[in-house]
Design brief:
heterodimer, A: about 260 residues, alpha/beta, Rossmann fold, 6-stranded mixed sheet, 10 strands, B: 12-stranded mixed sheet, 10-stranded mixed sheet, globular, disordered N terminus
């Protein structure tokens, strides 16, 4: 059994609208894949479906993580088994501090009866915050409440660093960031790369790929992957545009 | 008797068990002058108390149920089926060893003797109608602090007792204060001498054990000039099919410069009608603070108040109400400004789960002739499900030009997106709900004493676990 996050012939609908139409993809542990696509291509839908968002119906196909059927699991089971989603628009959790939120999330992963060791926890939290250029005082702020766009994205990456998943899906983690914030976030993501984690980076722009260099690039248009290639594909796409990707698709792409 | 399977029983619902007890004193079911005389005889009341009770009965029978503004659910109380007085006939014990075995076991299961050893200056434990245990730490007693049950207070300290009893809450204040006046038994009597600051809290624990029972404790706390005291009460009852009535009256008197902090954490079972009148009288520069946490019960109606009688007196109500499926928490606060430069602060947070309903009723009164009075009122409601309900009825009358008032209210909901976000971090739906609720009350709970904030968070978790999925 391959250690990979695998999507096979996935079809997803919201109501009677088909959004993902036969998408296949495999992200092995240890690799970084990027999905690029124009607005409305279904990128965020793919991310949410992987995490188990209740609003979407999978009408066909499957998603597995290290061979296990993810679609049969509740969102929190998927998370505890090692799937992480960095949200494009993270929710606020009023009144719950980052420190308490992450502590609860880590505690939920422990076997019953075991408790988190507080000193170790805070040592790790402060270390990861330093990595992301975050002030310690941040730990006592409520999760995403009144955060700027950049603070929200950084907080997502902080959670990724603390929860140490097997696979992470980063949904438009670069959107809304200025160049300095982008560099910090990219530095954080790069430092987490390694043989233990597979990362799927979803983005609209090529810009972030100057800082986070993927092993593979996929182009997604209208609910399916139309091209796959190495890191240079991103540059080529930037130069020639999505129409080129659409036109050169291996098989015809449905147009609406 | 309930099963002794402790692992199941204690973890799920701490208060849900009861023991069969033989009561030597039992006033029977229903309420009449005969009931009053039975209670007065059993308690060896002085004549003025017997008369007070009879006046209470008369007023109770005359007053209609307040269903014109409050819940019609009050009509479900069958006053003829309630038992108004149940007691062993023994005086309260001073050591746990002397307390009868079954009753001691009850309080041990609720963790009371353990808490006393840990952090309390004194403890009183009431079982149905009477205190079964009351003890104050020696050092505190030597400072002249009195902490006994109301029956004992009346008997042994008649001068102080009579001077203040029934003065803050008159018999006719409302139908249920009148009922309490008629049949009251138990509750605490506390007197703190001038200048004495009681460092650790005094705690009373009220336990309903019997079925079809009404508990009517009456608490009177007097903090003499410049003194300070914190009093905490906890309440539980087992789950019965029939209704249980809890109708207490609590009167606080803070003399010049004194401070009283009164903390309630109640965890009633869902068959309890909890209809309580609580009010404090704050003299010059005195401070009265109510911290009121209402969890459980079928219907709670409770609006702790402060009459700000002296210049610069301060009153505060911090309250949290959690209305679960089928429950109605009708709570709030009253602040009656009656002197210049008085200030009051009300912060109320309510959570409605399932078909639960939380109602905030506030009354703030500042008459025209007063100067430099201030009130701040904040009430926030959190709705968990689309079937949950909240209502806010703030009545604020501020007259005159030199007074300031501020009022904020909010209603929020835990969104599906928020729960999904939390689940994506590995929390179950129930854990996510529970953490959201704790986040909602967090800034308020931080102002509570440590021991109580921990207890409260645990109770909220238990409630949320039982209500989700």
């Amino acid at each position: 059994m391959m250690n990979e996050l695998r999507v096979e012939n996935l079809h997803v609908a919201i109501g009677d609208q088909q959004i993902v139409r036969g998408l296949s993809l495999a992200v092995p542990r240890g690799e970084m894949h990027a999905i690029m696509g124009p607005n409305g291509s279904g990128k965020s839908t793919l991310a949410k479906v992987m995490a188990g968002h209740p609003d979407y119906q999978v009408t066909k196909g499957k998603i597995t993580m290290d061979g296990e059927d993810l679609l049969a699991l509740e969102p929190d089971d998927r998370a505890r088994k090692g799937l992480f989603l960095a949200f494009q628009y993270p929710s606020e959790v009023p009144g719950v501090t980052i420190a308490n939120f992450l502590r609860a999330a880590l505690a939920a992963r422990l076997p019953e009866g075991e408790e988190l060791e507080a000193t170790e926890y805070y040592a790790k939290l402060y270390e990861k915050m330093e990595l992301l250029g975050m002030d310690r005082a941040f730990t006592s702020r409520a999760v995403n409440e009144g955060f700027s766009g950049g603070e929200k994205k950084r907080t997502e990456i902080l959670q990724l660093a603390m929860l140490e998943p097997k696979y992470a899906v980063l949904d438009e983690t670069d959107s809304g960031l200025d160049i300095d914030a982008l560099k910090t976030v990219a530095h954080g993501v790069n430092s987490l790369r390694g043989s233990n984690i597979g990362i799927l980076l979803i983005t609209h722009y090529q810009r972030i790929l100057n800082y986070i260099v993927p092993d593979h690039v996929h182009v997604m248009v209208q609910g399916r992957i139309v091209r796959s290639g190495g890191k240079d594909l991103a540059l080529e796409l930037e130069e020639r545009g999505y129409d080129w990707a659409r036109a050169g698709a291996d098989e015809p792409v449905l147009t609406r | 008797m309930k099963t002794e399977n402790k692992a199941v029983d204690i973890n799920r619902n701490i208060g849900d068990f009861h023991y069969k007890v033989d009561y030597a004193k039992d006033a029977g079911s229903g309420l009449s002058e005969k009931t009053i005389h039975y209670i007065s005889d059993a308690k060896e009341d002085p004549d003025w108390i017997r008369e007070f009770r009879l006046r209470g009965l008369k007023t109770f029978l005359e007053k209609p149920l307040p269903t014109h503004w409050a819940s019609k659910d009050l009509e479900a109380i069958d006053f003829d089926k309630i038992r108004y007085y149940l007691a062993s006939g023994d005086a309260a014990k001073r050591t746990w060893e002397e307390v009868p075995e079954d009753i001691k076991r009850t309080f041990e299961r609720l963790g009371i003797p353990e808490q006393e050893r840990k952090f309390l200056a004194g403890v009183e434990a009431q079982f149905d109608s009477e205190a079964v245990y009351s003890n104050i730490k020696k050092a505190v007693g030597e400072q002249g602090v009195i902490f006994v049950g109301s029956t004992e207070g009346l008997k042994n300290h008649p001068d102080i007792f009579r001077k203040w009893f029934g003065k803050v809450i008159p018999i006719a204040d409302n139908k249920f204060s009148a009922l309490n006046a008629a049949v009251f038994s138990g509750g605490s009597f506390i007197y703190v001498p001038p200048g004495v600051k009681v460092k650790h809290p005094l705690q009373a624990y009220f336990r309903i054990n019997a079925e079809n029972f009404g508990q009517f404790e009456r608490t009177l706390i007097i903090a003499d000039e410049g003194s300070e005291v914190t009093y905490m009460e906890g309440c539980t009852a087992p789950k019965f099919e029939t209704t249980t009535l809890h109708s207490a009256v609590v009167e606080l008197v803070a003399l010049k410069g004194a401070k009283i902090q009164y903390i309630t954490v109640q965890n009633w079972s869902a068959n309890v009608f909890n209809l309580v009148t609580k009010r404090g009288l704050a003299h010059e520069d005195a401070e009265i603070k109510w911290i009121d946490c209402n969890i459980g019960s079928r219907l709670t109606m409770k609006y702790p108040g402060v009459v700000l009688k002296g210049r610069k007196a301060r009153g505060e109500v911090l309250s949290i109400a959690l209305a679960n499926n089928g429950q109605h928490q009708d709570t709030g606060a009253k602040m009656i400004h009656a002197a210049d430069e008085t200030t009051s602060n009300i912060i109320s947070k309510s959570i409605s789960i399932g078909t639960g309903r939380a109602t905030y009723r506030g009354l703030v009164h500042v008459p025209k002739h007063l100067k430099h009075c201030k009130n701040n009122t904040e009430c926030d409601a959190l709705l968990i499900n689309s079937t949950s309900r909240t209502d806010t009825y703030p009545a604020i009358t501020v007259r005159g030009t030199g007074n300031a008032v501020q009022h904020e209210a909010s209603v929020s909901q835990v969104s599906a997106e928020q729960i999904f976000y939390m689940q994506q971090r590995g929390l179950s739906e129930a854990q996510a709900m529970s953490l959201s609720v704790n986040g909602f009350v967090n800034d308020l709970v931080r102002q509570f004493p440590m021991e109580y904030s921990v207890e409260l968070k645990r109770l909220i978790e238990l409630e949320m676990e039982g209500s989700v999925g």
